[in-house]
Amino acid sequence: MARSIGSSFSTQISSNAVRPFYAVKLDYSTPLRLWTGNGEITINSEIYIGSANIMSISQVNETGEIKASGINLTFSGIPTALLSNALTETQQGTDCEVYFGVLETSSNAQAIVDNPYQIFAGIVDVVSIQEDGDTSTIQYSIENKLISLERPLDFRYTDQDQKFFFPNDKGLEFVDDLQDKNIVWGGG
Predict the structure, then answer these.
(1) What radius of gyration do the chain's Cα atoms show?
(2) CA neighbours closer than 13 Å in the CB half-sphere of residue 132
(3) Exposed, middle or buried: residue 179 (CB in 10 Å: 0-12, 13-18, 19+)?
(4) How far apart are CA 33 and CA 50, in angstroms?
(5) Residues 3-15: tens digit of each pLDDT
(6) Rounded Cα gap, residues 79 and 77, in angstroms
(7) What is the pTM for the complete model shown?
(8) Of 77, 69, 76, which Cα lies nearest the Cα of 98?
(9) 94-118 mean pLDDT
C-alpha cells in the first residue's frame, strides 16, 4: 500500500541530525498512550506520556503480500506497585496503534514535525508478565488485524445460528427436518 509522509517529515528524516521517537496507544477503557521520550507530547489531540527507557518495540515487518505479522511491545523496570493496574486492564483483543515520528532538531523543545506515521495497527493477543523483586517486565504480543482472515468462521446454516444474528428470522426453521427427509424424484 502506498503511503506518503509530509515534506517536513521527509526533510527531517534525511537530515544529519534526527530525533526519532515511537508512540504506542493501547485502547483500554482508559487509553494508555506512551512514547519513547520524556515528558508529554500531543499526537492527534491526544496526550502521550513519556516512557523514556522502559519501552521497547520489536521489528515491524511489512510485505507486499497479504500476510499477518505481529510485533512485541516490552515494558521493563515497572515498579511492582503499578503491576496491579496492568493486570486489571489487560485483555485480549484490545486495539493497539504504533506511530513513528520525529522531533524538531532546531531546539530542545519537543515539537513534532508533521504528523507521526502509523507503522502498525493490531490487537493484543498474549500478555506475559515477569516479576523479579522490586520491578516487573510486561511483554505484549500484538497481532496484525489481518490475522482474522486466517481464522475459520464458526457459522453453520442452521436455525440456531440464524436466530443468533436475526432473532425473528424464520428462514432456516425447517433445515433440521430436511436432514432425514426422503425425497422421491420422478414418480412414485
Answers:
(1) 25
(2) 5
(3) exposed
(4) 9
(5) 667 777 777 777 7
(6) 6
(7) 0.70
(8) 69
(9) 81
CA–CA separation, 25 and 11 (whole Å) = 26
Q: Which phi and psi angles does 47 have, rounded to 5°? A: -90, 130
pLDDT of residue 79: 66
The residue to which cell 515491524 is assigned: 60
Grid coordinates belonging to 87: 493486570
Cell, residue 101: 515520528
Q: Residue 147 has what DSSP assignment? A: G
Q: Please name every residue paired with 57 in a beta bridge, in sequence order, or none if there are none.
A: 73
Looking at residue 85, its pLDDT comes to 61
Write down the residue that cell numbers 515494558 correspond to. Answer: 75
* Closest to 8 measured CA to CA, from 97, 98, 106, 99: 106
